[in-house]
Amino acid sequence: MINSDVFNYVNVLNKAADAAWQRNDILANNIANVDTPGYKRQDVDFQSQFRRALGNSRYETVDAKVAHVSGTELQARVYTDAANFSYRLDGNNVDVDSEGTELASNQIWYNGLKDSISQEFANLMLVMK
């Protein structure tokens, strides 16, 4: 992380992009294990960490909230989803159609984050001119 208030949004967006990248890997792994008996799907939780980090004070501006966010509280958490639930007799709970939909949705989210990071740097370059 870059240690300057100018890069607060970039740092938060970077953490979110890292989480989206990690989620992409997890979802691809779920699809790869669709036929593995006993495999339980995994997912990544970043949004609840993000909401918790930004939601500490209701009466602050978004800029102030982002300035108070540290990189350590924005860690994506990998978890096993519905471990006791299974679609099939072999104990696997991966639905390839759902995983494909989640993968596409995650890719759109990642691309949006990437564009937002690019826009933040474009804004910084404009200010420095």
Which descriptor suits the 3D outline?
Answer: elongated
What would you report as the Rg, rounded to the nearest angstrom?
A: 18 Å
Helix content: 55-70%
* Count of DSSP H/I helices: 4
- Content of β-strand: 5-15%
Mean pLDDT: 85
Major sheet strand order: 1-2
Query: What is the makeup of the main sheet?
Result: 2 strands, antiparallel
The structural class is mainly alpha
User: What are the low-pLDDT stretches, counting only 5+ consecutive residues below 50?
Assistant: none
Compute the separation of the termini in Å. 24 Å
- The H-and-E topology, N to C, reads as HEHHEH
How many DSSP-defined strands?
A: 2
List the domain count as a whole number: 1
Task: Give your account of this protein's structure.
With 129 residues, the chain is mainly alpha-helical. It is 57% helix and 6% strand. It has one domain. It contains four helices and two strands; from the N terminus they run αβααβα. It has a two-stranded antiparallel ribbon with strand order 1-2. Helix 1 (8-32) packs antiparallel against helix 4. It starts with 7 loop residues before the first helix and ends with a helix.
